[in-house]
């Protein structure tokens, strides 16, 4: 409604500005009994952290998370998980020239037009710093999925920078290679070329766009609530919430325009045993192929869900640009200084994964596949063997 | 949540299956005082109606809407507008072979996997017939916008079928030409080529994909609630709810990967008078160019909002295909008969427009630009000059 | 948000005015596989229907429901259940004098103040006629509960009219006697006295207040999401939505002010076998007594949930009263004619029960006790033995 | 949905357990331009704080709030206000005996039944400590209302303890006297008697129930969205969310049963000038009397909104009681030690007021009476005179 909450049963509520006191995220709807601690969340925050390589901003944020509630003796209690990440390395001074003279193509003007004011330090709430909250929430969602009976695996990598496109990679390659290089491209050779290209633009004081390929495996079939809460619709909302995104695709994506029905339609055959959910003797219908991206009629087929998200080039570049000052009424030249990324997808990989974890878990809760109250038993069955956290157990 | 509602303050709730008794839509949150009647809604329904040309299904639905509530003496009363459209030409018999043997790439299997059953006639609730409800709701939203002080204009056209792409068209061309041909492409020459191509596929018993370009003008700046309710996120959800869509883009879309920051960034200059909202002497900052698609930081800049949506080829084709019957345990050959569209975008134009109307109005209500209770005066001011509908006025 | 929707996972959306074309209700979130038809819903509508006795309005509405969607071959399909009830006996003429001169203590003035207009015939949307939609939705909720593995029983009766109070009755008495008399009081002797009293007021052209006692048995323990979605909070919202209600209580209610902690606190003992959910050898803790009304910390204990709702006297009375005409600027005398109830609780009994069914089911879905997609198997397990409705099965 | 969020446009999301690290609250939907700092919030927190008198718990919590976001240079920015209150004086040791043996009539058993575990220290999330978050949110809502063009005043006091009932008091008395004594009763003589009675129970190791009367003045007419979002329904939800409440009433409340229509109905007359909103020459209809409690048809009439909320006696009492241990399978005797309140309403007065502020503001935002984005100008008008916070202004 007012932009600071995502999710239906698994609800993520966030606050924070780039140069404010702290970032904060409340995860409500996390089942009890899930192993969770700050280290586990920290691992994902570290992957998103600024300053991790030459092609990211040099802002020095440790991004250390504190869990204020919802966890006891290393396990969630079913009550909201409140987390805070202090902002440590804010240097607002550099942003003073832009207070009344908006930086080109940033959110400066629109935030001021909406609110009549804005927190101008570091872009305030329009900054991608906000996504630190999302990654923390995604780590919680991942912990829930890992603790469940399901075997969901999610991974993303950078598949395009400028006109350099990665070849198709297997899910195993994704898992194995995408975190090995600074670009986060699972094809090492392409990663090198991308890195080189990014450095060229960086050297020119310019920036460049790119895209991310994502894949989710093990998401049970039958999830998604058409017509307005289908998986494509909610994934679309999730991905288009990420700052600087301009496109969301799944399955054949924009390429679907040139594919005929005969080419794209996939016959059904009986599952021959490699689909873990099959329990009938006859087997279950499985599609021959996955041009449908794991989704038919807005509902999961059990096949891998995959797609792409596009980012435009970062708007903070040292090039001289022109703006106007609405206080003085004068046009002026500005140069955006500060510590900025020359390209967005490499640091956005954990953000895309986080939004996938949150969205997939939310659908699994809505579809009754995970007990919304506690992870350790099934809905409908009552567990008299309570497991309250006890000081005597230690 | 469970898929049958869209919108936050302007809420659209729908029901209905392709071969069920009737389709129904409840529009809640429509301000009072808006001129509305069945004829006005019918005009848009007729644009979506089946059987309107050689390249649409021949199903003979009159699609006549009945307003059951919320309107009195030709004006809305602020209470929910309940509408019903009877299904008249349902012929379920043809769908019997698919009851336990899913059609390739339809929603047959996933609906059954989710619900353990499904309304199989004509695709039941997974059918695009549902969008008749959306067009009715969009017509109500359009009526509200038209009655407001704002001057919002929305139009879409088919800009790509297979590999045939329309040249860039002006908004005026869109308004003037897109309804002139069966393809709904605003460039007449391209429309002819598209029509020909579609007929070729149709003759081969095949179908083809395509895309729609949309544009919204006059949407006030300052709308959209980042980070999760930004305009791109909610538009993305809206468009990815439309059946058979595979991609949503705005601004440069997927093309943004190859554009550098220097190329894409747009300087600010002072408005020189052609932006209606400017009231200060100094003028207001306006961007030089619109690669940003009217949206910065998820909030409207006041520039036109534009983008594209992609559809895959229709899955109902007369080609012989293979499926399995989960009741008999046998594989079998099927041939999808029935009355179907060889391409989706032409009939989806009014659907895209409807989702835009609903989404834009919702943001205008959320942003306080339109009185949520009544259209005839401004919030905060009390109008003692009541205008209740009176029998003595007639 | 805008008043026409109730429920979280089990969502009820309504429309309709007293003298409009039709009333309508969409039930979204009803699991598939539930036996449901119009007769079943009609049985509850008939209990709420006007004209059923001397102490109800004589308006002649048959209140016949049509199911437009969501049901196939007598079972729900998981898609929304759309229902319509035509208005047949609207006589708006009598309401003309009140178009610009509000009836005392009705919603006439406030609806006009809010919307700048209103549907004035029969009170329009402010009329209790709206509750016909709620009773239809409640019947669907009841059908879902009946089809589930749970054994929920809900019943209400009129326990107070004026200063006549019914003695405490057992749940069995409630079930057996509350529908036996026109007052719907489960104590026959009290019912007679209430009936007499009501007729006295009716004869004087006056009306009187009263209250309803409700009880829900078999609601599983552990339901309710504190702090803002606890069962008391959501029941409170449900009951205070019913027209003309002025108080909601549960457990000791307002009487709790005079009870000490020692008196009210209830020891825990081991369940000795009469609580069906107990499966452990040790037994389960059960409270000795039920002053807590089945709810502790906002969550169900498994004990019966009970409480009371109060109605003020109907405001439509034939007495001469004074009002002002905002069009003419003149004060004037009016006399509310029409067909009205001299007391509200008797006809409100099915409405209270409906709101209980809807609220309880919603909590059971939220708590994972009922599969949100289908009633016939458990979440987490995949049923390959599909039961699609088949013409060949008949 | 899952209990940790309240409000529609003005959204309050909370976390925290009694003996956890910290309590936290995120206020989303707070317009920009509202003067706000920690001192202002602290003033209300201090009124709710433990240890403020002899009749409250002696737990030593300073309850100091930190604002982490949403405020810049003393004014809100329109982005979410994130607040944290550290827990300082948690002594969990005393609660160890209850880990597997629930305290009578607390939330111990139900939380464990729901989640399979619970944070047992100090009652965890079921503790009334949570309401510190609500009071902080209420202070923000009050600041917004104070900064608006409206003149809303809200006050509550304790009107009943045991069988001691305060006489009717004027709103001026409420404002003047209710904070003068520890009981928070606006009638000093009654307050003394209540204080004495509470101390008697306290001395006996017992506790007692009571109730609060609340009143809201200056709430504009025409607010509230029937049928499910009427003001009574949402106030009912708000008040029944407060821990240990058992009844909500407005207007005549439970007393309405014995009042006839003739007695309760209120004639309309023309406003003679004391209603600030009247602008027509003829004046506006105003009701003669306010038995309706400011609400007709679920919508505000502009008259004062008033009602009552009832609390049962605190359940934490030093009396010996019996419980069972579900781990050992043994019954046992327990005695609840700790620092507890002998009566709840005195400390609940700021909580009731907070929930009123939040609910009233939410309705004003929904009704378009306050600009949802910023307080300093009206919706629909664009203010080019930006007021961004500037370092040069200082």
Automatic annotation (TrEMBL), chains A, B, C, D:
Record: residues binding NADP(+): 48
Pathway: Metabolic intermediate biosynthesis; chorismate biosynthesis; chorismate from D-erythrose 4-phosphate and phosphoenolpyruvate: step 7/7
A Pfam family annotated for this UniProt entry: Chorismate_synt
Catalytic reactions of this protein: 5-O-(1-carboxyvinyl)-3-phosphoshikimate = chorismate + phosphate
GO MF annotations in UniProt: chorismate synthase activity; FMN binding
Cited SUPFAM superfamilies: Chorismate synthase, AroC
Entry keyword annotation includes Amino-acid biosynthesis: yes
Protein family (similarity comment): Belongs to the chorismate synthase family.
Alphabetical GO biological process terms: amino acid biosynthetic process; aromatic amino acid family biosynthetic process; chorismate biosynthetic process
Residues holding FMN: 125-127, 297, 312-316, 339
Enzyme nomenclature, EC number: 4.2.3.5
UniProt-annotated stretches for the region Disordered: 369-394
Class of enzymatic activity (EC top level): lyase
Keywords: Amino-acid biosynthesis, Aromatic amino acid biosynthesis, FAD, Flavoprotein, FMN, Lyase, NADP
CDD domains in alphabetical order: Chorismate_synthase
InterPro entries the record matches: Chorismate_synth, Chorismate_synth_AroC_sf, Chorismate_synthase_CS
GO CC term (a single one): cytosol
Function: This reaction introduces a second double bond into the aromatic ring system.
Protein name from the UniProt record: Chorismate synthase
Claim: Flavoprotein is one of the keywords in the record: yes
Organism this protein belongs to: Halopenitus persicus
Cofactor note: Reduced FMN (FMNH(2)).
Lineage: Archaea, Methanobacteriati, Methanobacteriota, Stenosarchaea group, Halobacteria
Cofactor: FMNH2
Compositionally skewed regions (Basic and acidic residues) per UniProt: 371-386
């Amino acid at each position: 409604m007012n932009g600071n909450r995502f999710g239906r049963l698994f609800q993520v509520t966030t606050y924070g500005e780039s140069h404010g006191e702290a970032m904060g995220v409340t995860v409500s709807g996390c089942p009890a009994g899930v192993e969770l601690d700050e280290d586990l969340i920290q691992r994902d925050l570290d992957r998103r952290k600024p300053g991790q390589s030459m092609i990211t901003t040099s802002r020095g944020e440790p991004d250390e998370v504190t869990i204020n509630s919802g966890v006891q003796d290393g396990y969630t209690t079913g009550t909201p998980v409140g987390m805070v990440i202090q902002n440590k390395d804010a240097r607002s001074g550099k942003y003073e020239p832009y207070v009344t003279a908006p930086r080109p193509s940033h959110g400066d003007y629109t935030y001021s037009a909406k609110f009549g004011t804005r927190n101008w330090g570091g872009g305030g709430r329009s900054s991608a710093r906000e996504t630190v909250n999302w990654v923390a929430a995604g780590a919680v969602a991942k912990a829930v999925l890992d603790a469940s009976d399901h075997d969901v695996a999610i991974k993303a990598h950078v598949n395009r920078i400028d006109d350099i496109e990665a070849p198709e990679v297997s899910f195993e390659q994704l898992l194995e290679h995408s975190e090995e290089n600074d670009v986060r491209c699972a094809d090492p050779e392409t990663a090198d070329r991308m890195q080189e290209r990014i450095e060229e633009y960086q050297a020119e004081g310019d920036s460049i766009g790119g895209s991310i390929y994502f894949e989710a495996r093990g998401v049970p079939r039958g999830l998604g609530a058409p017509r307005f809460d289908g998986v494509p619709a909610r994934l679309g909302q999730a991905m288009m919430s990420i700052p600087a995104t301009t496109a969301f695709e799944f399955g054949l994506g924009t390429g679907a325009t040139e594919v005929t029905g005969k080419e794209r339609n996939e016959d059904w055959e009986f599952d021959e045993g490699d689909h873990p959910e099959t329990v009938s003797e006859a087997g279950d219908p499985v599609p021959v192929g996955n041009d449908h991206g794991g989704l038919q009629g807005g509902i999961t087929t059990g096949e891998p869900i995959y797609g792409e998200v596009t980012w435009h080039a970062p708007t903070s570049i040292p090039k001289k640009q022109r703006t106007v000052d609405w206080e003085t009424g004068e046009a002026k030249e500005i140069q955006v200084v500060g510590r900025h990324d020359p390209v967005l997808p490499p640091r956005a990989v954990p953000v895309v994964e986080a939004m996938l974890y949150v969205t997939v878990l939310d659908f699994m809760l809505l579809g009754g596949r995970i007990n919304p109250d506690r992870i350790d038993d099934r809905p409908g069955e009552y567990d008299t063997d309570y497991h309250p956290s006890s000081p005597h157990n230690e």
